[in-house]
Amino acid sequence: MLSTIVLAQFGLDSFQTYVDSVVPGSRYGLSIRSVKTGKELGNIRGVEKFTPASTLKTLTTAAAVHYLPLDYAPKTDVSLNGSVRKKTFIGTVNVRGGGDPNFSGRYYADPFHIIYAMADSIRALGVDSISGKITLDSSYYKGPWRAEHWRKNFYDAWYGAEIAPLGFNDNCTMIRFKPGLKVGDLARAEILPDVGYVVLKNEMVTVPGKKRKWTWALDSAKPEITIGGAIGIGVDSSQLVLPVRNPVAYFKAAFTHALKERGITFKEQNNVPDGIQIASYSFSAAPFLSILDEINQRSQNLHAETIFRNLGAQKSGVGSVESGRNAEMKFLAEMGIDSTDFEVWDGCGLSPKNKVKPSTETTLLAKMARHPKGRFYINSFAGPGIGTGGKRMLDLPYPWLTRFKTGFIGEVHGLVGYIYTLEGDTLAVAMYLNETGRNSDAQLKDVLDTLWSRLVYRTNDNYGSLMRMKQMWLAAQNVAGLTARLEYFSRMMKGTPYKLGPMGESYLDPIENKPLVYMDSVDCVTYLEHVLAMAIAPSENEIFNTLQKIRYKGGKIGFVNRKHYLLADWVGEGKYARPMQVPGDTVVKRTMPKQNFFRAKKIKYDIPDAPMDLRYLPYNRAVEMASKPYEGPLMVTGVAFVASANDLDATHTGFVVFRNGEFPVLRHAAWKKQVIELPLKDYLASRKGKLPGITLFEFLKP
What is the DSSP letter of 493? Predict the structure, then answer.
């Protein structure tokens, strides 16, 4: 039943309509799941398979978080076999790659930082020259450096760089170029960083104006790049980042370059015997959690592919696509997830053959949120203004309410992640647009962002009100004692506009799907509830939960659990308030027709109606009390204005402030006005002949 209710409350029936109207022809998939219960709250094509694009990285990183220790860091080992004669090392320098993708400028100002550290370790042996061999061990990975099943053009893009256990600078190079000195000259071009490996063929011509129309081509096997086309004489400069062929050879070139930069001459002698090992070192460029950030926040494909293979190597001894896939399938089985719902061909999601069901993706996300290391997993996701979310959903006023992973390849867009709800649950959400055809990428992103934002707003109705309550609570930290705090907060809310029934159960119940917290306007009861919640909450972070416990029996949100009758339920529960015995009061029996009340809402309610004791001070005695100056310490009570009808307990409520030497003052949310303050006797005079009496009740702090 919950799934049907929430489906309607989210308005998911309108989601497909919106997709059809803005990006017609696209196939849309959606799943929303409660992390707290694991139940799916609604879906659209939830059990159909979709191409996930880079959202597949959520599986790669989930399996890595599950199997790898948090202090895991890929290692690159350097050992020297041979001997040192004077200042020359004679022998073999062995470098064994362990799949570290971070020998780059992502974590350090200089992409050579770690490679310089390698050279410095050798230099620390008193060596200024090497005579022998540099051998590179890439056996940690098995299989082709180029991921299979990618589209051909991906291999010529920076995001499709070859994958190897030894790499440098994301296995890419930058070509920076600017116009020549005069029209007709070749453009001036340079390779950055230049380690003497990439060969650049420059055919770009300088032309008049600010024209920018250049071309580039990469050799399919050799590290050769050709740039052509034209650059205007008025252009400052421009650049291209392109992949490098054979990353292991690229690493060797960078390593020998670093040796030279650190004052070590290398003379290759292939016939030099290895000798004994005289030194060994291990280097790690960045820790596991930083790698997760690169994968999930910045969607770095090289990092995803290396972790994918590293995971396979850790589980089976050999790093390959197949071993990575096997590790992920084993992980899914251990998590109780049907592995056939995922079709995995790589670790980053570039293969169009990858498939996943939206409902299974949210199952994965929900289980990872409950995982012992789940917070590290979630924290690696992007968000508005963060990573791939740097330009997405920036209009969300509270961006911390969501974390997500984006995905995009041709005719595929994906958005998956988490939405934190006001009532304390976390939602795992997966959205996909496949077969997008001629619809523009900008439109497709906007559609997903719009629908995602709808969910954020829908599950956090009037979140700004909670922020205001927190600010008020923090400002009152020096106000001590329940009485003083009730007086303070009830006074601070003076002037708040009146609105009948401004609150409900949000998306959790269809009867009254209004916000769970609302400070923009109040009625007489919600005014009491907000004031009391701020007064008794032990911290600003407990205000929301306190408010719901005041409003609902057992704090369980739902229309049937709401304390609808002020004296019978709200005060009668005896947990947050209780009637006060006042001289001259009386007690009568009344029965609240709760079964009829709920029946009118089509809600089953089996508890028989039972009579209650209704204690109140008759009208004349109430007027007499209100017309005398109060004597005693400050006192703040609640007041219920008793109903004339026998099937109702009260028609109105508010606070009464008693100050020594002054007439009692009523603070209440007035009909069609706002929260105001006036002498209690004046209000009673306005109700003469319409009011049997009043019930005073004291507030309790559980």
Answer: T
